[in-house]
TrEMBL record:
Name of this protein: Cytidine and dCMP deaminase domain-containing protein 1
InterPro entries, sorted: APOBEC/CMP_deaminase_Zn-bd, CMP_dCMP_dom, Cytidine_deaminase-like, dCMP_deaminase-rel, Deoxycytidylate_deaminase_dom
Enzyme class, first EC level, given as a word: hydrolase
GO cellular component assignments: cytoplasm; nucleus
């Protein structure tokens, strides 16, 4: 990921109250837009990887599914989630081996002793975990004392491994900068993903986004938060975080957790499951070439949300863009992501090592061309390619997810790198804006383009509002469950 030389101080919640020293790749951006810290970005990625779509039938188990982000020199080199057979930590050992030395690992749950002993042995630098229910769950019913006892024994083993290892095993959470959640919510409604749906609405509104966001908040709070404070304190004490159970540390910790879940839900809702909207190609695809066949919609959406999260690391005060590259092996791997594996990611920013004030940051057509940012900003796609951790193989299906249409500067790079598919919004396609042009995207050949749109197979299939659902003259949005039902019913078989 872009910004490999950045050193960012994080809050170690296990050591005291919320004190955060936030820095950026360049010098301070005081007075600029709110920005996610890298530590919080890695934490959000770990939570989101826990939700990676899977076709596996998971048995009811004491072991919770978990997500994992592997970071080296503040750059993501691996995104993983547990499978039915392997925990996330075990998968990291298989995928990276000795390359884990000096890496930082971000888990969506505190890893079990089986994973921790191998990770520590690999020489990792730091292990951060989400301070709620651990991988070996402590939230079993009281009627099952055997499994609860096993979980407590494992927690004790984890603590012993933690206290006798060189690796720092801790909780890293930073408070969000002021107005971050509000900024994310406001910018989300202006994106291609929301605007295209809104324009199909009779009243041109974004009520559906609000409904979707509330559904996601409810869902993710049940997954990642512990509603009962006393239960949360008991779990914290069992996993060795008893010093966080006193206020103000406990209230600060819960607020940080709640804020991050709110961010995740808000960003996830910005690429909604809604009707027959999704990532589709408007061009006929060769049926005999697997590399040109589109991904399942749920996976494409999941990866685009990752790109959306990256966009909130931008140094461009006007337009944040995120990009992430995934590829697919010939056969299914051991990871919970199936055959898919992470290649690289980035966001738009000024060159590494520069100071924010060194370059212009204006794109106004009325301004002198010398003080426009376009010639100086490194684009998200360019950073994703520059800081990739894996090579792009010509015989494998590779795909890049970009939060907006790639410009004329990036399209040749994407094709030249051998990427097989582009997933993006396309409102800017075919347009020229000030110094930046999007003309080449529509003319691109040899690379499949999947843009956010209504399924071409069902251009008039879904009526997004039920005319009977009116109350006091105000039109109401159908529930998310209804939308998902329509989506599956009408679009099944066209993924």
């Amino acid at each position: 990921m872009h910004g490999a030389d950045e050193e960012e101080e994080a809050t170690a919640a296990v050591r005291g109250p919320r004190v955060s020293v936030a820095s950026t790749q360049t010098d301070s951006m005081a007075g600029q837009i709110p920005r996610l810290s890298k530590v919080n970005l890695f934490t959000l990625f770990s939570l989101w990887m826990e939700l990676f779509p899977s076709t596996e039938q998971r048995k009811k188990s004491q072991v919770k599914k978990s997500g994992l982000v592997v970071v080296k020199n503040m750059t993501i080199i691996g995104l993983h989630c547990s499978s039915t057979d392997l925990h996330a930590g075990q998968i990291a050992l298989i995928k990276h081996g000795s390359k884990l030395k000096n890496c930082d690992l971000y888990f969506s749950r505190k890893p079990c002793s089986t994973c921790l002993k191998m990770i520590v042995n690999a020489g990792v630098n730091r292990i951060s975990y989400w301070p709620a229910d651990p991988e070996i769950s402590l939230q079993n019913e009281a009627s099952n004392p055997v499994t609860t006892g096993d979980a407590k024994l494992d927690a004790k083993a984890v603590e012993r491994l933690k206290s006798n290892s060189r690796a720092r095993v801790c909780v890293l959470l930073q408070p969000l900068v002021c107005y971050m959640v509000q900024f994310i919510e406001e910018t989300s409604t202006k994106l291609d993903f929301i605007q295209k749906i809104a324009k199909s609405q009779p009243d041109f509104n974004t009520d559906f986004y609000t409904a979707c966001r509330q559904e996601r908040i409810k869902e993710y709070e049940s997954l990642f938060l512990i509603s009962n404070e006393e239960t949360h304190k008991q779990i914290l004490m069992t996993i060795g975080l008893e010093n966080l159970c006193e206020n103000p540390y406990f209230s600060n910790l819960r607020q940080n957790m709640k804020d991050l879940v709110l961010v995740l839900a808000t960003v996830a809702a910005s690429v909604p499951v809604f009707g027959c909207f999704g990532f589709y190609s408007s061009e006929p695809q060769p049926t005999n070439e697997t590399c040109h066949q589109g991904l399942p919609q749920e996976i494409a959406r999941h990866c685009m949300v990752q790109a959306r999260l990256l966009a909130y690391r931008t140094e461009d005060h006007k337009t944040g863009v995120g990009a992430i590259i995934w590829a697919e092996e010939k056969s299914r791997g051991c990871d919970g992501t199936g055959a898919m594996y992470f290649v690289g990611c980035g966001y738009n920013a000024f060159p590494v090592g520069s100071e924010y004030a060194d370059f212009p940051h204006m794109d106004d057509k009325q301004k002198d061309r010398e003080i426009r940012k376009f010639r100086y900003i490194i684009h998200a796609e360019q950073n994703a390619l520059t800081f990739r951790c894996r090579e792009i193989k010509p015989d494998e299906r590779s795909m890049i997810f970009v939060t907006k249409c790639p410009c004329d500067e990036c399209v040749p790079l994407i094709k030249g790198a051998g990427i097989k598919q582009i997933y993006a919004g396309d409102i800017d396609a075919g347009k020229k804006k000030a110094d930046i042009s999007y003309m080449k995207f529509g003319e691109l050949e040899g690379v499949s383009k999947f843009t956010w749109q209504l399924n071409p197979c069902h251009p008039n299939a879904v009526e997004f509002h039920d005319p009977t659902m009116r109350e006091n003259g105000v039109q109401k949005t159908k529930s998310i469950d209804d939308q998902q039902h329509q989506h599956k019913k009408l679009c099944l078989g066209h993924y």
